[in-house]
Task: inverse folding
């Protein structure tokens, strides 16, 4: 699942063409608090890192810069009010220019050279990091201005994001392609057949997963034993037989 | 080699930093305040990072030399310490405790080598010391990146009360001949190397390194550690012993260490997340005194297979066995 967070509807508008069952677009509102709140609302409490291991999040929008131009991915994000630095892992990304993004609560009229300025990236990244690993959090920024925003209208921003849409799509597609979903194996029927206690379930799963890692069919090893099991005692003995076979006695 | 190099502000002006950055001029360099801001981030994906590691150059302001854990062999050399001159390894062995311990594939190199040598000299004032300088890393593998190995070699050459061990799976071209510098080569059967020690040199290349060091008169240790259980381990390790005994002049080897795989119980879950398909770490280990180990029967048979061969060949006095 991919979640794309933008601050403004005019930034989201061109990205709506990417929307699907697997790609959601969320408009957060401007500023650090709105961005963090939107991430929190999207991933409510109770979810764990493991629940979101196949989730990717993007913050896409416009930014200011003294002299840079074009689309960039953040390789360092600084939260100006707190001074905290954050670092995305960019192993999944290639062929995109990188730059540091500084997020603050106001438009910076005196930007430093080589830096991008926005108002959401730091809190988006910080909030996302609570549940998502740093190789799955991306901040993509298109430069819209050099600190003077008088001429920056919603239609200018929409047209800026539209100009980079093909590039953005290429990035999201390449990241999705690189994701490998691990097969989750269910052993419920085996647990039942073995009259398994909680500790027996742990042993069955551990042995079956080890069997798969050695190129054997872990489920099959246990299924073969199931016909002879009438009680938990039989189940325990069968686990010992599988263990002896797999682990060398 | 490294897509990104993170450089601590205080490491920027160190000579080692400048040399490394010169060597990797194509890498993207990112300034950081403290190495832990990158190295210790929560929830890092070790698997994806392993495909394109980042390098972190830092200054170690804290302790640099540590007492070794009791599960590490002191090889009869007494006060056993290790130096943390770098953290993590550019190799990617499935079973490596570093994957469980650090939770990242990124590598830190500490660039303030003078501070390490000063701390070591201070410790040596209290008496002789056995120091493993390639413990939380493989300094031999980092040879083309930084000069830590030669820094320690030079230091040991002028401090004979220090016994220095440099353990490596890499190809070492140049070794020193001082008695107190031990080159410890980790050797594994080719089948184990191919399956579990990805990115490391072949057994033949490692044996070539051993023989080069022996020919030069260097002090050489052979490490058969960790031994890994596989279905036909007896055949595999017997063939391996045949090759080692045939291809290496063991009489000239200083000593041999043997130990089966063991890891702190604290690290096993992270290690399994890092290598979710590796039988080396998915084996249903037993827990013993806070460590995950093979059942005692397997452990004895694994160790016994190699031990017996070297005893039969008359090299029993060279063996140090971690049971």
Result:
């Amino acid at each position: 699942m991919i979640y794309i967070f933008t601050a403004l509807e005019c930034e989201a508008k061109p990205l709506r063409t990417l929307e699907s069952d697997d790609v959601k677009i969320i408009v957060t509102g401007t500023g650090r608090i709105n961005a963090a709140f939107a991430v929190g609302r999207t991933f409510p409490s109770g979810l764990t890192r493991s629940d979101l291991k196949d989730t990717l999040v993007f913050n896409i929008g416009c930014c200011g810069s003294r002299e840079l131009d074009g689309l960039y991915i953040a390789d360092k994000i600084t939260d100006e009010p707190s001074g905290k630095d954050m670092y995305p892992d960019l192993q999944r990304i290639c062929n995109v220019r990188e730059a540091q993004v500084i997020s603050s609560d106001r438009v910076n009229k005196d930007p430093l050279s080589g830096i991008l300025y926005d108002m959401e990236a730091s809190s988006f990244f910080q909030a996302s990091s609570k549940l998502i690993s740093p190789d799955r959090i991306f901040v993509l920024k298109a430069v819209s201005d050099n600190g003077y925003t008088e001429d920056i209208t919603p239609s200018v921003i929409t047209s800026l994001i539209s100009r980079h849409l093909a590039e953005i799509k290429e990035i999201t597609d390449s990241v999705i392609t690189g994701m490998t979903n691990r097969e989750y194996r269910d052993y419920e029927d085996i647990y039942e057949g073995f009259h398994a206690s909680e500790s027996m379930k742990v042993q069955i799963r551990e042995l079956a997963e080890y069997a798969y890692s050695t190129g054997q069919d872990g489920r099959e090893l246990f299924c073969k034993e199931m016909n002879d099991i009438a009680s938990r005692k039989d189940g325990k003995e069968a686990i010992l037989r599988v263990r002896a076979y797999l682990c060398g006695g | 080699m490294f897509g990104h190099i993170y450089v601590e502000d205080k490491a920027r002006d160190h000579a080692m930093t400048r040399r490394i950055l010169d060597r990797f001029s194509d890498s993207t360099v990112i300034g950081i305040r403290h190495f832990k801001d990158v190295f210790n981030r929560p929830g890092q994906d070790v698997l994806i990072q392993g495909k394109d590691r980042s390098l972190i150059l830092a200054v170690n302001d804290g302790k640099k030399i540590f007492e070794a854990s009791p599960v590490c062999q002191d090889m009869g050399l007494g006060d056993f310490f290790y130096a943390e001159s770098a953290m993590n390894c550019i190799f990617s062995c499935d079973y490596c405790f570093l994957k469980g311990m650090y939770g990242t594939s990124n590598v830190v190199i500490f660039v303030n080598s003078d501070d390490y040598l000063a701390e070591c000299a201070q410790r040596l004032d209290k008496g002789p010391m056995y120091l493993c300088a390639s413990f939380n890393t493989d300094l031999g593998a980092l040879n083309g990146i930084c000069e830590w190995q030669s820094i320690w070699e030079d230091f040991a050459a002028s401090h004979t009360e220090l016994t220095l061990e440099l353990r490596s799976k890499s190809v070492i071209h140049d070794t020193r001949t001082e008695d107190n510098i031990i080159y410890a080569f980790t050797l594994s059967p080719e089948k184990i190397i191919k399956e579990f020690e990805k990115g490391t040199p072949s057994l033949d290349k490692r044996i070539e390194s051993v023989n080069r060091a022996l020919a030069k008169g260097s002090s050489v240790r052979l490490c058969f550690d960790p031994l890994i259980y596989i279905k036909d381990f007896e055949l595999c390790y017997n063939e391996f012993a045949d090759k080692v005994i045939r291809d290496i002049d063991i009489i000239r080897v200083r000593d041999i260490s043997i130990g089966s795989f063991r890891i702190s119980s604290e690290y096993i879950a992270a290690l399994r997340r890092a290598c979710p398909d590796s039988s080396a770490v998915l084996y249903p280990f037993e827990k013993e005194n806070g460590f995950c180990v093979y059942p005692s029967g397997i452990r004895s048979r694994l160790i016994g297979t190699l031990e017996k061969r070297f005893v039969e060949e008359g090299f029993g006095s060279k063996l140090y066995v971690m049971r």
Observations:
- The mean pLDDT of chain B is 94.
- Chain B touches chain A through 35 residues (CB under 8 Å).
